[in-house]
Amino acid sequence: ALGQVIMSTTLHTGGPTPSTTNACMALMNLSISKQYKSQVYHTPGIMQALLTVLAQTSALHLPTLTTTAHGEPASITSLRNPTAQEARIRACSVLSNLAIGYDNKMSMFIYPGFVEAILVM
User: Fold this and answer.
1) What integer is the mean pLDDT of 82-105?
2) Which domain, by its residues, includes 31?
3) If you ran DSSP here, which 8-state letter would residue 70 be given?
């Protein structure tokens, strides 16, 4: 259910919302415990949801055609959106927590899009 919340609140609202951040925070708390790492990782939709948050909050994803009054690219201003930043931080924390488990680490490495997503963190 948390993966579905993350996906729907990120993709259908134009970016992460406070609900996205809360769902990522719940996953972050679950992924801390050694006994839940594998369960969280293997839950269908979780990895894709986390990678979607990273993609939606990436500077590469956000438009850079306009500049702010200060001459900065619009994407930099968008990244200063506290909701997007918090969702991104929480999603990164979940991925970090999940990678601590050796079994997860190996399968995360081959998960489609994972390496590319962390390279642009």
Assistant:
1) 91
2) 2-119
3) T
